[in-house]
């Protein structure tokens, strides 16, 4: 076996962390031949819970797990790390204004970006899961000037997977027969799950569905509001599916996307599709040679344009709000 890949997970004692760590440790993210060293970052009051999770990780005796280290200091947690999964974030609590939420998260993601800049490995790849994920990723990226900007990403893979699953259910196709679904914009209720280029068994999805009212009246809102529906049903927010999406995102990033298909990820905009340069927005992306590329040349019709613009406008507002706070 090769040298262990160091993977830092923040918010490791949270519910997504609990669903994530065992899958990383068992080789499902980086492969069965790649040993992993887990580095768990938690706030001091959650370190004990993280220690409990580490004991359970030991008890699994995973052949791929090189060891587990626990930290309450970001500089130490990111030192030499290759993959950083930023899961821990400040949740919105009752009565909290958006500015307060962004400010509280700035207090987490600014020092984490600085710590990644100071000590992470040269090949570090960062995935932000903690919400508001796109803007948290932007804050971290802006404080890591020595790390290539394209190493900072935000997770929209769960939205992507939800869209694929809804389309498969509606058409009676298998998930494996669905391709080229796209999530555009922000990981929020304004996101645009787009079927215009999607295919079902090689046929245009919109032709197979043949029901515009379902697309606009059911599909798009179901995907965009799925998180709330899960909280309503389960009494807790989605955790296993969020962890699964994080695993999918990193696996695609490292090992590539299949020929002829793409996935969705929040990546730094290069101005493609009219999304202002520098924003971290979801796009259709492929991964090759360990780097994301935005799929180019897709036709965007008037209704898609309006939906992309609306979600991107929200990202611009969030960026402007954190700019006022001096966070970017
Ligand atoms: P979860 O593990 O359930 O969620 C963590 C973050 O992921 C939240 O910001 C959550 O956003 C976000 N998220 C993104 N996508 C999804 C999704 N589809 N479904 C659910 N959540 C999603 O939170 P817990 O409260 O269980 O755990 C958080 C942990 O983070 C705690 O242990 C806390 O101590 C830790 N923490 C660590 C920090 C650090 O390491 N420096 C800093 C802050 C917290 P949303 O709130 O919108 O659901």
TrEMBL record:
Substrate binds at residues 92, 98, 131, 162. NAD(+) binds at residues 11-17, 105, 112, 129-131. Signal peptide: none annotated. It catalyses: (S)-malate + NAD(+) = oxaloacetate + NADH + H(+). InterPro entries: L-lactate/malate_DH (IPR001557), Lactate/malate_DH_C (IPR022383), Lactate/malate_DH_N (IPR001236), Lactate_DH/Glyco_Ohase_4_C (IPR015955), Malate_DH_AS (IPR001252), Malate_DH_type2 (IPR010945), NAD(P)-bd_dom_sf (IPR036291). It is an enzyme of class 1 (oxidoreductase). Gene3D superfamilies: Lactate dehydrogenase/glycoside hydrolase, family 4, C-terminal, NAD(P)-binding Rossmann-like Domain. GO terms for molecular function: L-malate dehydrogenase (NAD+) activity. GO terms for biological process: malate metabolic process; tricarboxylic acid cycle. Residues 6-145 form the Lactate/malate dehydrogenase N-terminal domain. The active site is at residue 187. Keywords: NAD, Oxidoreductase, Tricarboxylic acid cycle. Residues 156-319 form the Lactate/malate dehydrogenase C-terminal domain. Pfam families: Ldh_1_C (PF02866), Ldh_1_N (PF00056). Its EC number is 1.1.1.37. Belongs to the LDH/MDH superfamily. MDH type 2 family. Catalyzes the reversible oxidation of malate to oxaloacetate. PANTHER family: MALATE DEHYDROGENASE. This is Malate dehydrogenase. It comes from Cellulomonas chitinilytica.
């Amino acid at each position: 076996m090769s040298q262990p890949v160091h993977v830092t997970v923040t918010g490791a004692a949270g519910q997504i962390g609990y669903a994530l760590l065992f899958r990383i440790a068992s080789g499902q993210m980086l492969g069965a031949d790649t040993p992993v060293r887990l580095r768990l970052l938690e706030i001091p009051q959650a370190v004990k819970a993280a220690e409990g999770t580490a004991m359970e990780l030991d008890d699994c005796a995973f052949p791929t797990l090189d060891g587990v280290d626990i930290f309450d200091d970001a500089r130490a947690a990111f030192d030499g790390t290759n993959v950083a999964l930023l899961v821990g974030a400040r949740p919105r609590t009752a009565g909290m204004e958006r500015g307060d939420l962004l400010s509280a998260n700035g207090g987490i993601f600014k020092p984490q970006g600085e710590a990644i800049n100071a000590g992470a490995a040269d090949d570090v790849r960062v995935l932000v899961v903690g919400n508001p994920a796109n803007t948290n990723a932007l804050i971290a990226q802006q404080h890591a000037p020595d790390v290539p900007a394209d190493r900072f990403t935000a997770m929209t893979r769960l939205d992507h997977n939800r869209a694929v699953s809804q389309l498969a259910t509606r058409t009676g196709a298998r998930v494996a027969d669905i391709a080229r679904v796209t999530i555009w914009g922000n990981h929020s209720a304004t996101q645009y799950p787009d079927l215009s280029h999607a295919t079902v068994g090689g046929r245009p999805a919109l032709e197979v569905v043949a029901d515009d009212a379902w697309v606009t009246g059911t599909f798009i809102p179901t995907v965009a509001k799925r998180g709330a529906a899960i909280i309503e049903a389960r009494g807790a927010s989605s955790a296993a599916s969020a962890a699964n999406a994080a695993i999918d995102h990193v696996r695609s990033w490292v090992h590539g996307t299949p020929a002829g298909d793409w996935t969705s990820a929040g990546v730094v905009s290069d101005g493609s599709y009219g999304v202002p340069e520098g924003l971290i927005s979801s796009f259709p992306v492929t991964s090759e040679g360990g780097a994301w590329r935005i799929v180019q040349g897709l036709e965007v019709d008037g209704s898609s344009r309006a939906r992309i613009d609306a979600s991107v406008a929200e990202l611009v507002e969030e960026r402007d709000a954190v700019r006022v706070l001096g966070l970017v």
